[in-house]
Amino acid sequence: MAKKKDVAIVGYGETPIVLRGGRSSYDLASEVLEQILNQTGVEKSEIDGICVSETMSETSNPFWAVFLAEHLGLQTNWTQINGMGGASTAAGIIRAASAIRDGLCTTVLVVASDAQSSYPPTEQGGPRWEFQYPVGLRGPTGVFGMLMQRYEHQYGLKYEALAKLAVTQRNHGLMNPNATAKLKAPLTEKEYLDSKFVSTPLRVLDSVMVCDGANGVLVTSTENAKRLGLKKAVYPVGYGEVTNYKVDDLLADITESGFTVAGPRALAQAGMTPQDVRMFHPYDDFLIAIMLQLEQIGFCGKGEGSDFILNTDLSHKGKLPLNTGGGQISAGQPGLAGGGLNLVEAVRQMFGEAGERQVSDPRNAMVTGIGSIPYAKNWSCSNVLILEQ
């Protein structure tokens, strides 16, 4: 697909991220829609499409998207639900754009809402007991601990680089009024390095804290945005997606993911190189995931992630601003709405509405998503979305 600007993101909304807030996913999504309607002045009757991310708290409900639309009072001509984990929201932008281009709908609410810390789900995943549990790979922390060990064996790993990521994102999170209260405390590199191991060499401060929250954006055609009198817009100009990378290769390198394909594909579509990216908003369930994405998308070479991080200013005032809202690591992970958290932050920055953490040059942004976890294999879904003013 050639670079296009015929579809735009014209509004956004986000709830505060709360640990065990007790509100349902329906309630949280309602707040996001209300914010979007108030921000844009668009009448709810203009929204004729909805694209919903799957959740952990509502995952047993096969009619989640339909019931959510009903709860929001939306009559839709097009309904989509994405079960791609943290990659769902970025994927939803592109699917909404395709539906708009095909004339299936005009204006789409792309929304993610989850109350995972209040309504914990049954365990999800593929084979578990017979393969993972006997050797200790119980959940994401076990798997990412193994991945970190493998990476360190292959390339070496400078933990001061991960410490820098942790501190950079925490500093950004301190400026984000929506960040969860429990993470609203300064962090030093020494505190990161002294934090306890939970799956050696993975530390407790390497990973996210599961919370509740919701976020969403409004997507419509550029032509319709003009009809509605909307002045602010950002455009999805590049996208790459890979699911089950090297699934048939039983000896695939677990430190390599679909970002090696999705990243260059998105950049080529946008007519950009990594050096052209003004902001980087990667999916950050674990700090090592950020480093691997930097390498595999092409910001640096394989095995060079530690040095790239140590030699690059990743603050909101720096050369490559990184997750300027704190990311999931330092704002909290609102369940499977975590994939939308960094996307909404990118849109907020490009609208010039990020307050004290506003970057100076928000002309474009790269947002990524990760779906599922690498149970001794590669991430199930990797996607890269590039936005441009």
Short description, anyone?
This protein is of the alpha/beta class.
Explained architecture:
With 389 residues, the chain is α/β, with parallel strands linked by helices. The chain has one domain: Thiolase/Chalcone synthase (Peroxisomal Thiolase, Chain A, domain 1), CATH 3.40.47. 33% of the residues lie in helices and 18% in strands. The chain is built from twelve helices and eleven strands. The strands form three sheets. It has a five-stranded mixed β-sheet, with helices on both faces. A four-stranded mixed β-sheet has the order 8-11-10-9, with helices on both faces. The chain has a two-stranded antiparallel sheet with strand order 5-6. Helix 5 (159-173) crosses helix 10 and helix 8 crosses helix 9. The chain is globular, with a radius of gyration of 19 Å. The model has no long low-confidence stretch (mean pLDDT 94).
Beta-strand share of residues: 15-25%
Question: Runs with pLDDT <50, length 5+?
Answer: none
CATH third-level topology: Peroxisomal Thiolase, Chain A, domain 1
Number of strands: 11
Domain tally: 1
CATH structural class = Alpha Beta
Examine the secondary-structure arrangement and name the CATH architecture.
3-Layer(aba) Sandwich
Residues in helices, as a percent range: 25-40%
Given the structure, what is the number of helices?
Answer: 12
Series of secondary-structure elements, N-terminal to C-terminal: EHEHEHEHHHEEEHEHEHHHHEE
- N- and C-termini, Cα separation: 19 Å
What is the topology, as strand order, of the major beta sheet?
A: 1-7-4-2-3
Mean pLDDT: 94
Q: What is the general shape? A: globular
Structure class:
alpha/beta
Tell me the CATH superfamily: Thiolase/Chalcone synthase
- What composes the largest sheet? 5 strands, mixed
